[in-house]
Specification:
Outer membrane efflux proteins (OEP); alpha+beta; four-stranded antiparallel beta sheet; 10 helices
């Protein structure tokens, strides 16, 4: 019984721990990379590229085919062994083995193998880009939850101060030091803050649900994150925009994808041009046959090997002209043994085949021109990708610098509003200002702290975007 109780307590502890689990950013990123549907689809695209490579490799392997057929013929049919027409019923069987190999096809098979390698590399870059995008999306959702929680803590903290002020004001009103209007004003402020707390709690819940949906976690009620230990970690330092841009061009998947697409277009052009060259192939075939049909053979009678027959008369005398002929009889011969027929009736065929293209309705010419257009289009897309990346990096750099300035300004605003709030609080405690002025000072201080939180996490996100462009993997970003 004690053992059962102990096991129950252990299981309950494990369950309670699971219910109270708080996800870290690293755990969220890993879970998203392992379970995100878009990433899984990109991984399937990579598998398809592997299959294309296998198919391209198969073009270098000879083709080998074997066939066998069994027939029963009734009536007038051609004997597959003697090739004579016979009216009878017989069973026949044929077997064939054919081997074919393309010796030269304008290097198209070789180009297809190269294309398969390029396609695989392009799909790998697409997968990497998808992982970066998802990681950044998760990080943004994670920071949004932290921001909402931080704002909620600000509102709760200041509301606790308001409640203390209510108690203190009530004592002063009861003592006749302050008018009743001051108490009503403080209570109105408390009611407004309570409403703000409810809205902030809803924002926390909504952001948690949004993050859980990104992670494909369905247990919304028990999902929570670890909001401690995340601050501003600038791994770039004084890195210049030129260094960031150069690193982005070397490492970002957008450029690599466009480069590989250009290589694919060039390879397609080479394949299209290969159709203008002759194709040389070799073949080898082996076949054999069997039939159970009987045959007939003319044989000389050993007892009477020849007979004399008149073949004409001598003109004028009428004397008969005779000659000896073989004395033959028709003998029925049964089918040979199955194995013997396979050896007796087999045959081989081998040779080469040269196909020289001259005119095919301008299909090859049109395919080459179409491939040239695709090459030019891919060049423009690569150029556009470089321009877009440059613009995006500069925008991210400006956003990060602007977010830093906004955060620094928010810090100064908090310091100023905190001093103003402390001053207003002291004057209110001494009865030198009314409750409305005190509430306004407190509201400005609360808003400055909320703006500080928003500026802080906006700067963190902008900084991580910039670090991602610099080439730091999404899973190695420091917060």
């Amino acid at each position: 019984m004690k053992k059962l109780i102990l096991v129950g307590l252990i299981l309950f502890g494990i369950y309670a721990q699971a219910q109270n689990k708080k996800w870290t950013l690293e755990e969220c990123l890993k879970h998203a990379l392992d379970n995100n549907i878009s990433i899984k689809q990109s991984e399937l695209d990579l598998e398809v590229a592997e299959i294309e490579k296998l198919s391209a490799l198969g073009n270098f392997v000879p083709s080998l085919n074997a066939s066998i057929g069994v027939n029963e013929n009734t009536g007038l049919s051609f004997n597959p062994v003697t090739n004579n027409a016979q009216t009878t019923t017989f069973l026949s069987s044929t077997g064939r083995i054919n081997i074919g190999y393309t010796i030269f096809d304008g290097l198209r098979n070789f180009r297809r193998m190269q294309r398969a390698d390029i396609s695989k590399l392009a799909n790998q870059y697409r997968l990497n880009k998808m992982k970066d995008d998802i990681s950044l999306f998760v990080a943004n959702g994670y920071l949004q939850v932290i921001l909402n929680k931080a704002n909620l803590e600000v509102l709760k903290s200041q509301n606790s101060v308001t409640k203390e002020q209510i108690a203190q004001t009530k004592e002063l009103v009861d003592a006749g030091v302050l008018p009743d209007g001051d108490l009503l004003e403080i209570k109105a402020t408390d009611a407004s803050e309570q409403q703000g707390i409810v809205n902030a709690e809803n924002q926390v819940t909504i952001s948690l649900i949004s993050l859980a949906q990104i992670l494909l976690i369905k247990d919304y009620e028990n999902f929570d994150i670890e909001e401690e230990g995340y601050g501003i970690v600038d791994t770039l330092g004084d890195t210049s925009i030129d260094d960031i841009l150069e690193s982005a061009k070397e490492n970002r998947s957008e450029i690599k994808i466009a480069e590989q697409n250009l290589e694919l277009a060039k390879k397609d052009l080479q394949i299209a041009k290969g159709a203008n060259l002759p194709t040389l192939s070799a073949f080898f075939g082996y076949d054999t046959r069997y039939t159970d049909n009987v045959s007939f053979e003319q044989r000389i009678d050993p007892d009477n090997p020849s007979v004399t027959r008149q073949i004409g008369t001598v003109e004028g005398t009428g004397e008969a002209v005779v000659s000896e002929f073989p004395n033959t009889t028709t003998v029925e011969i049964g089918p040979e043994k199955f194995i013997d027929q396979l050896y007796t009736n087999d045959g081989i065929a081998y040779g080469f085949s040269l196909n020289i293209p001259f005119l095919n309705g301008f299909n090859t010419k049109a395919s080459v021109k179409r491939s040239k257009v695709d090459v030019e289009r891919s060049k423009y897309l690569l150029e556009q990708a470089e321009l877009d990346l440059e613009s995006t990096v500069y925008q991210a750099y400006v956003d990060a610098k602007g977010a830093l300035k906004s955060y620094e300004a928010a810090n100064k605003a908090v310091e100023s509003q905190e001093l103003a709030y402390e001053y207003a609080k002291a004057r209110y405690d001494e009865g030198l200002t009314n409750a409305f002025d005190f509430s306004q000072a407190k509201l400005r201080y609360d808003n400055s702290r909320i703006n500080q939180n928003r500026a802080k996490y906006d700067y963190i996100f902008r900084l991580k975007v910039l670090e991602l462009f610099f080439g730091i993997p999404a899973t190695e970003l420091k917060f």
